[in-house]
Design brief:
Four Helix Bundle (Hemerythrin (Met), subunit A); 3 domains; 5 helices; transmembrane helix; Metal_resist
Length: 146
Amino acid sequence: MTSRTRIILCVIAAFVAAIGGVFVGRALFPGPAQPGVELHDVLHHRLALDANQEARLKELEQRFAVQRRALELELRADNARLAEAIEAEHGNGPRVAAAVDRSHVAMGELQKATLAHIFAMRQLLRPDQTAQFDRAVVKALTTDAR
């Protein structure tokens, strides 16, 4: 076996070992759950929604998905304007400050829309379902703060 062949085999073995290490690492140490995952699980699996609630929830979620996507696109556009302002001013000048302020407005609108969506979902629930939903909302909002 030539030295070139050995080097190629070593590189391939190292690559395979690295990929294997990533898979083992993810299996042994899964990343933290995304905020809102438990809320979704509570709504769709633990509250035993009736057919009417399920249908109304599906409609709310579809409507919010469109609204959220539009607001996220607005945030991306704001970030692009901020990048242009930083590139032009190379510091915290008036264009940068204006771009930051504009992005904060979009962030606020996304947060308000998300809260409105949460409250709309809560309105679908029966009184015996709201306590568990409320706990999941609080947990989703405070998990990263702990």
